[in-house]
Amino acid sequence: MGFDLSWLLWALPVAFALGWLASRFDLRQWRLESRQAPRAYFRGLNHLLNEQQDQAIDAFIEAVRHDPDAAELHFALGGLFRRRGDYDRAVRVHEHLLARADLPPRERERAQHALAFDFLKAGLLDRAEAAFTALLGTRYDADAKVALLGIHERSRDWARAAEMAQALEGSDRGSFRLRLAHHRCEQAAALHRQGHTTEALALLESLVHQVPQSARAWAALADLRQSLGHVDGGLAALEALADHCPEHVPLIAHSLAQWSLMAGTPERARSRLADWAQAHAPSLDVTQALATLDPDATTARQRYIAHLRQEPSLVAATLWLAGVPLGTADEEPLVRRALERAGEPLKRYRCAACGFESRQYFWHCPGCQGWDTYPPRRVEEL
Fold it and tell me: Which NCBIfam families does the entry link to (predicted)?
């Protein structure tokens, strides 16, 4: 039986027509999806401008579904997840990007950078450290070093923190000399606790010569010398602090007064504190220290009156009233207790960055983890 060529003549036009219809269908589908993707994207952008993060996430998820190869949409979605605190989903988005073989090197570094911050925000410090370490030497090198510095500080790994601060010194991120000094002070404190007093003393003495602007280094050196019985050496360190960091004198005024009395040199401390008081705004700590150094109680009380003439102070008034009878023997304790209770919150220190208040002065704020964010004055004096 012979082959009928007429079927071939009919089949070719039919196949062509089917192919043309299929291409038209695919083209329409592609156009429809390409229109839906930007619509979803712009809808998500509109929600972002209106601070509607949940609706923006839904819109971006829809946009990613229509255009799964768009890296920019993934970055937007991952950033939204992180801002909302949904760190697991942010990690999955950025890990999905890193798993793509077709991702350009520049976008791969960007995804690694975003993933590192996902881990950091989630509190996964070990994974964040590994992710940021992978960014060293890239265009995110400075960001990675700053983040690693913060991780080492949170982990209280002061040796590695000091190493990272040294690496950042001289970069476009500013000076890290004072921050490095804090790390060295923490190392010295650890050495002292472990009984390595000689090493701690040598570290602090070297530090004050390298970073004389560090008030903490001078104060730590003074405390260590005094604890070893070297009162004169401690006083010398406090006087050096007053010369290099005069704004921090209120923090050491009490120690300067007490140690000078122990050393038998009260006049020297009185003269230095009086000169400081004339050149700076009134400080309750300096006024108290001067009152301590005055041998006559009446003269000491006049210090508080002089303070009150310059600046109203409930704490100074309470100290002045310490030498004045306040009613009967039964009434006086009640009045004094009420005055002390009212003045107690005014004696605190307050972080200028986050507002965290404490009776103790902190070089490193427990609230915001900032360094040198506490003014060296009481709340009442701010």
Answer: PRK11788.1-3 (NF008755)
